[in-house]
Amino acid sequence: METDLPHLNGLEARIARQITPALEDMGFELVRLSVLGRETPTIQVMADRADGSLINVDDCQQISHVVGAVLDVDDPIPGAWTLEVSSAGIDRPLTRAKDWERFAGHIAKAELDLPMDGRKRFSGTVLGLRDGAALMRLDDGSEVALPLENIRKARLILTDALIEASATMMGVQDEESDAPRPKTPKLNPLRPGKGPGKNTKPGRRVH
């Protein structure tokens, strides 16, 4: 079965392909990946669990070590770089086809690369996915089908219903793990025995 990855190009797509198998082996999925900066690029990895639930600080630490090890070997970026790992959060971006099915019934906003009907920005209720297009019911009651390849960015809008749904999911997690899960943990990983400013050799992480 083909992995449902975010739509990426170039270096970001290459890195996503490199780290996805390791993420999936740990029970996580890639939500978004960005490479920012030039002199010392920052690789930002946003992830969640395979069931769509949020990850916690320990999960971020685990992901950072495993992903960092993969990138140290594959070495996709010449020179030094940093790695950030974060949870998708409640008002998360919608980056994959299945996100539009998973969050049907919730409110979202989307921005297109190319305009449709004279506009690039849309806001309304997510209805699902059909024939490679995200379906939305807009605030005026009309419905649109936005081709996934034309969606520049999209994310959920924080509402009481979304918060309640997330709280329900987190409650189930707490019952299973007896551990609270923060909403949007984020960290810059450190290697064991390394402190800030260490490990700055070309082709490796800086911290």
TrEMBL record:
Residues 191-200 have a biased composition (Low complexity). GO terms for biological process: ribosomal small subunit assembly; translation. GO terms for cellular component: cytosol. The keyword Cytoplasm applies. Residues 94-159 form the Ribosome maturation factor RimP C-terminal domain. It is found in: Cytoplasm. Coiled coil: none annotated. Keywords: Cytoplasm, Ribosome biogenesis. Its main location: cytoplasm. Residues 19-91 form the Ribosome maturation factor RimP N-terminal domain. InterPro entries: Ribosome_maturation_RimP, RimP_C, RimP_C_sf, RimP_N, RimP_N_sf. Residues 171-207 are annotated as: Disordered. SUPFAM superfamilies: YhbC-like, C-terminal domain, YhbC-like, N-terminal domain. The keyword rRNA-binding does not apply. PANTHER family: RIBOSOME MATURATION FACTOR RIMP. Belongs to the RimP family. Required for maturation of 30S ribosomal subunits. This is Ribosome maturation factor RimP.
